[in-house]
Amino acid sequence: MAKIVTVTTQKGGAGKTTLALLLATGEALRGKRVLLVDLDQQGDASYSLVSDYAPAKPAMSY
Which 3 state secondary structure label does DSSP give 10? Predict the structure, then answer.
């Protein structure tokens, strides 16, 4: 059975990305299939997952 976990708050700097990445990593290490969806405009979760393969992240994006 699939479970959906969301990490949300409007406050910036609250650790949402860190928490989401740690939860996803923990479940993956337990052998679960994980889909992490990053809807943040900065895309930090997506960037951190592919940072070894992606070019340098721009300082600002509009």
Answer: coil
The position carrying tokens 């609250």 is: 14
Over residues 13-56, the pLDDT tens digits come to 888 888 888 898 899 999 999 988 878 777 777 666 665 555 55
Which amino acid, 28?
A
Compute CA 40 distance to the chain's CA centroid, rounded to the nearest angstrom: 9
23 closest CA partner among 50, 45, 1: 45
Give the 3-state secondary structure of residue 61: coil
Q: Tell me, yes or no, if the pTM score tops 0.70.
A: no
